[in-house]
Design goal:
The protein has nine helices and 21 strands. By secondary structure, the protein is α/β, with parallel strands linked by helices. It has two domains: 45 residues, no CATH class; 245 residues, TIM Barrel, CATH 3.20.20. Strands 16-15-14-13-12-11-9-8-20-21 form a ten-stranded mixed β-sheet. α7 links the parallel β14 and β15.
């Protein structure tokens, strides 16, 4: 049975009751969505800026409001083993519960200006738009859906009622209760595993590694949500062969060899403008370490490398899915997701033949009759 959609608090439809909070002995209210456990007096906002104490309860202040909607290739999330070649309706809101110095969507995730959220859409409108535009899924992305959990859950339920799947692009920094609440509504997730040291998480993201690892294990072993992982390699910060090796060993040991692992190139942004771009050679070396550790599907990102962005059969070595940026140029799977050469199953969600959306990206106007506005920058 579907849960009831959130009801606004007062006259502002973007303010709805929050989930996962409790009142402290001193009268403040503690938000229990993420491990920051922000303790807020009346009128205060959490570090994410979008969750607040109003009248002694936690509310979400950005419900139904977005920084914009686009139709993207699913590979851009990146998800390489989930409905390949299909379009996904993507959107985000504002705010974030991490403080990454290298944030590459900082104008959205770090926004403290509500006028950034110029687009409005109810969960039903999002589901209707996805169906009308031929999208197989909807992605909660650009900023972390953990901070707009109530909106994401309602949108996921509306999408599921129409046979449309939901995708979370997230840092995975959330509590046990919120994790269970959120992921029972998600069909796929790409989790940013930002590094594999507590020091990096503490100093560069102002968070902790352990809850992220708990999220990864929970998704993999306790849900049916398809999981892929991305690590942005930052020169001199998290790109040493030793650290990458420990990360890969942990993935294989705790999650299994079939979870795809993406190593993505960093470019200078936000508060890390002094760092150089990630050399292509670093990504190649990281992928080699992953393969040697037993990761069956390791990829590189933010660089043009069709060979290392393609999916290969781990049994016979056949090239199964060829990718040139986000365009598929080879499909060698049968309708059951097995290698056509040797019959070995490939882990993933392969619902029939590949789509042909390619690398197009288009902006979408939301309303009674949402439609494509114009091509967006790739």
């Amino acid at each position: 049975m579907a849960e009831q959609e959130a009801v606004p608090v007062g006259d502002d439809p973007s303010v709805v009751p929050g989930r996962h909070w409790h009142v402290l002995d001193d009268g403040r209210v503690q938000c229990d969505v993420c491990p920051r456990f922000c303790r807020l007096a009346d009128g205060q906002r959490g570090l994410c800026f979008v969750r607040a104490n109003r009248g002694g309860e936690i509310v979400l202040t950005t419900y139904g409001r977005s920084s914009g909607f686009c139709v993207d290739p699913i590979e851009k999330k990146p998800l390489y083993h989930f409905l390949p070649g299909t379009p996904v309706l993507s959107f985000g809101t504002a705010g974030c519960n991490l403080a990454c110095k290298f944030c590459q969507n900082w104008d959205i995730s770090k926004s403290r200006e509500n006028d950034k959220l110029a687009h409005s859409a109810s969960p039903d409108a999002i589901a209707a738009a996805a169906a009308r535009l031929g999208c197989r899924s909807v992605a909660f992305t650009y900023n972390d859906p953990v901070v707009f959990l109530e909106y994401a859950v309602d949108a996921a339920q509306a999408c599921r009622a129409r046979g449309i799947r939901s995708v979370a692009v997230t840092a995975g920094y959330m509590t046990e209760a919120a994790r269970a609440d959120f992921y029972r509504h998600m069909d796929a997730a790409n989790v940013d595993l930002k590094a594999f040291t507590e020091a990096f998480y503490r100093n560069v993201t102002k968070s902790r590694l352990a809850p992220v690892l708990e999220t990864l294990e929970y998704i993999r072993h306790e849900t049916s949500c398809w999981l892929e992982i991305t690590t942005l390699l930052i020169p001199g910060e998290n790109d040493s062969p030793a650290e990458i090796g420990r990360l890969c060993d942990w993935v294989v040991d705790r999650l299994g060899p079939d979870v795809p692992l993406h190593f993505s190139a960093f470019h200078p942004d936000y508060r890390m403008l002094d760092k150089e771009r990630t050399p292509h050679a670093t990504l190649i070396a990281a992928r080699r370490i992953a393969v040697e550790a037993g990761v069956r599907h390791a990829y590189v990102g933010n660089v043009h490398d069709p060979h290392r962005d393609s999916t290969w059969c781990h049994a016979c070595g056949e090239r199964l899915i060829g990718r040139d940026w986000y365009t598929l140029d080879r499909w060698h799977l049968d309708d059951g997701g097995r290698c056509r050469s040797c019959g070995t199953p490939v882990a993933g969600v392969f619902d029939g033949p590949a789509g042909d959306w390619g690398r197009k990206r288009v902006r979408v106007r939301m309303g009674d009759a949402p439609g494509v506005l114009a091509p967006a920058a790739a």
